Every structure is written in C-alpha cells, then in structure tokens.
C-alpha cells in the first residue's frame, strides 16, 4: 500500500446482527484495499427501530426507523458510509444518499423454528412474527394458525419462543448464519416460500456525491447480488408497496438470464397472486412489467395494499 492511509468511519446499528454485518463489510473492504482493520472505525448508532420494541414496525413508522439516524449521520459527514440489511432499507432513499455496494448475498431462505415444516405445525399453532409477508404466507398455507406479534432482534425472538409466547417463529437464515447460529430451525424451500425483497443482502450506502468513497466501495460490490436485489427493489417500487404490503420475491440467475418470481397476498393470507418473469441482465423495465401483470390480476383485497406506479 502506498497512498496515505485512509481513516474511514463506518456507521452501523448496534444490534448483534448489525455489528456482525458491519464487521463483514469492514473485513471485505480492508482485504480489497490492503488496509489494517483500524483504518475503518465502526461507529454504532442506536436506531429508533431498536429503541421501540413493543409495537409492529409497520405501525410506528416503517422501515425508515432503521435508517433515519444513520442517514442523518451520513449527510452530516459524521460517518463516511453506513451498513444496512438491504431488506430494511426503503426503496426511496433521501436525496444525497446512494447504495454504493451490495455484498455477496447470504442464503435467502426463511427458517421455521419450532416445527420441521409449515405442514408439521400443530393445528391452531401460534406463530410469532411481525412481518406482514410472513404472516400472510403462513395464513395462506395454514389458515388454522394464529399470528402472534413478535418484534425484537434475533436473540429476543428466540427467547420469546423459548418462554412459550408462541409455538414457532420465522427468521431469516442469513441473520442466523451471520450471527454464527448454525443449525437453528428448519430452512423453508424458497420454491414455495419466497423471501422478502432483498433478504440476505447487505447494502453499503454513502453520500451520493462522495466519489472517493464510492470508488473504494465499488471494489467490494458483488455484481450478481447487486443485479438481483436491484431488480427486487424495482418490483417493490413499481408495485407501490410499503411495509404493510405482503410481498414475497426472489430473483435467481439462470445462465445469463435472471428469473424473478413474486407473490402478493392479502394480509389475512386468504388471497394470493403470483407470477414470474425471465429477463436479460440490464433489462431494467422487466420488474415493472411483472408488477403490472400482478396488479392486473390482483383481487381488491390484495390490490388495496399497492398503489402501483
Ligand atoms: N426484519 C429484521 C431483519 N432485517 C434483516 C434480517 C436478517 C438478515 C437479512 O434478511 O438480510 C432481519 C431478521 C429477520 O428477518 O429474521
């Protein structure tokens, strides 16, 4: 390494998962540029989403509660970049903030803890989740089950399950893997249980005009992961969904093409509309075509939760 040693500030939430993701981002950045770990300082910030734990996220202000403190620190120049679970980052970002890199996507699947499969859940089982998507998917497959609101970080949710507040819960396998908690629960096949848009992807954001930092972050961008999650976010934007909208989607590479599968639900799970589209990488309009197709076929109980473009 030759140039003067940079000293960069990386903003992160304080939860164990957020810290693990920030460490991963720092390790990749240091490896790519031949830096020492001390050259990237982790700056933990408490997000409102972490402070308020007793109400569903959708009720208290949505996904912005995960990002607004870090957004402010970034825009004020207190940090140089911020690391987020992409799943928690709203599709419309404040002016002046840009996603500069997506790290290689982890396993995209949800894990069921408390039963071997959705079918194996006992009749009338109480399943803890506060995610509208997971609740709708569960009730679609198992209308006999009851959804119990379950907020908090991964450890909190597992502790609630242990304490008997629910018979089972649903978590992202990516989060468990990144926390080193292997072997917890049973992964659900993504073929019949699609994940959330962007699940398993870590996004690094910086100031849109900060060309120097953007160039440094470009070195750790994973192009296939970036293409897949960008398409998923474009679908979400074209649907006009928000954090109340139960939407499941997954984009996979199939040879040189991308295949996007998506399903929209009514919140009670009674209604579902699904579709897929195969497209060439770089066909940025494809997710919008799938959105139009899904909205054209959605019954009112689904459509009222999406405003379209
Ligand atoms: N909703 C919170 C959240 N945001 C990101 C993850 C896990 C990591 C990921 O999905 O990328 C989780 C926990 C979960 O859904 O179990």
From TrEMBL:
Entries under Gene3D superfamilies matching the protein: Periplasmic binding protein-like II, Porphobilinogen deaminase, C-terminal domain
GO cellular component, one term: cytoplasm
Keywords linked to the UniProt accession: Porphyrin biosynthesis, Transferase
InterPro entries, sorted: HemC (IPR000860), Porphobilin_deaminase_cofac_BS (IPR022419), Porphobilin_deaminase_N (IPR022417), Porphobilinogen_deaminase_C (IPR022418), Porphobilinogen_deaminase_C_sf (IPR036803)
Stated name of the protein: Porphobilinogen deaminase
Self-association and partners: Monomer.
Start and end residues of each Porphobilinogen deaminase N-terminal domain: 8-214
Coiled-coil positions: none
Residues with S-(dipyrrolylmethanemethyl)cysteine modification: 243
Domain Porphobilinogen deaminase C-terminal: 228-277
GO biological process assignments: protoporphyrinogen IX biosynthetic process
Organism: Novosphingobium flavum
Family stated for the protein in its record: Belongs to the HMBS family.
Cofactor binding, note field: Binds 1 dipyrromethane group covalently.
EC code(s) of this entry: 2.5.1.61
Function of the protein: Tetrapolymerization of the monopyrrole PBG into the hydroxymethylbilane pre-uroporphyrinogen in several discrete steps.
Pathway per the UniProt entry: Porphyrin-containing compound metabolism; protoporphyrin-IX biosynthesis; coproporphyrinogen-III from 5-aminolevulinate: step 2/4
Co-factor requirement: dipyrromethane
GO molecular function terms noted in the UniProt entry: hydroxymethylbilane synthase activity
Additional observations: The porphobilinogen subunits are added to the dipyrromethane group.
Catalyzed reaction equations: 4 porphobilinogen + H2O = hydroxymethylbilane + 4 NH4(+)
Lineage: Bacteria, Pseudomonadati, Pseudomonadota, Alphaproteobacteria, Sphingomonadales
């Amino acid at each position: 390494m030759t140039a003067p040693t940079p000293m960069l500030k990386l903003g992160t939430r304080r939860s164990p998962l957020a810290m693990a993701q920030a460490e991963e981002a720092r390790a990749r950045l240091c490896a790519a540029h031949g830096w020492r770990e001390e050259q990237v300082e982790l700056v933990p910030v408490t997000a409102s989403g972490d402070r308020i734990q007793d109400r569903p996220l959708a009720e208290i202000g949505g996904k912005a509660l995960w990002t607004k403190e870090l957004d402010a620190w970034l825009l004020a120049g207190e940090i140089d970049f911020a690391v987020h679970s992409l799943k928690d980052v709203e599709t419309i970002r404040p002016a002046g903030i840009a996603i500069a890199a997506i790290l290689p996507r982890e396993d995209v699947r949800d894990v069921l803890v408390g039963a071997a499969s959705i079918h194996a859940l006992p009749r009338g089982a109480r399943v803890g989740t506060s995610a509208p998507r997971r609740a709708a998917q569960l009730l679609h497959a198992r209308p006999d089950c009851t959804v119990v609101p379950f907020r908090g970080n991964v450890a909190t949710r597992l502790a609630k399950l242990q304490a008997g507040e629910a018979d089972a819960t649903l978590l992202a396998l990516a989060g468990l893997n990144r926390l080193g908690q292997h072997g917890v629960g049973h992964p659900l096949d993504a073929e019949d249980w699609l994940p959330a848009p962007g699940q398993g992807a870590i996004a690094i954001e910086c100031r849109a005009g900060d060309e120097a930092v953007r160039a440094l972050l470009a070195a750790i961008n994973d192009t296939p992961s970036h293409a897949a999650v960008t398409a998923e976010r474009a679908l979400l934007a074209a649907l006009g969904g928000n954090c109340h909208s139960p939407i499941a989607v997954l984009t996979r590479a199939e040879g040189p093409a991308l295949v996007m599968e998506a399903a929209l639900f009514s919140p009670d799970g009674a209604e579902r509309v699904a579709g897929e589209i195969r497209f060439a990488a770089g066909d940025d309009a494809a997710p919008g075509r799938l959105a139009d197709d899904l909205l054209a076929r959605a019954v009112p109980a689904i459509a009222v939760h999406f405003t379209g473009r």
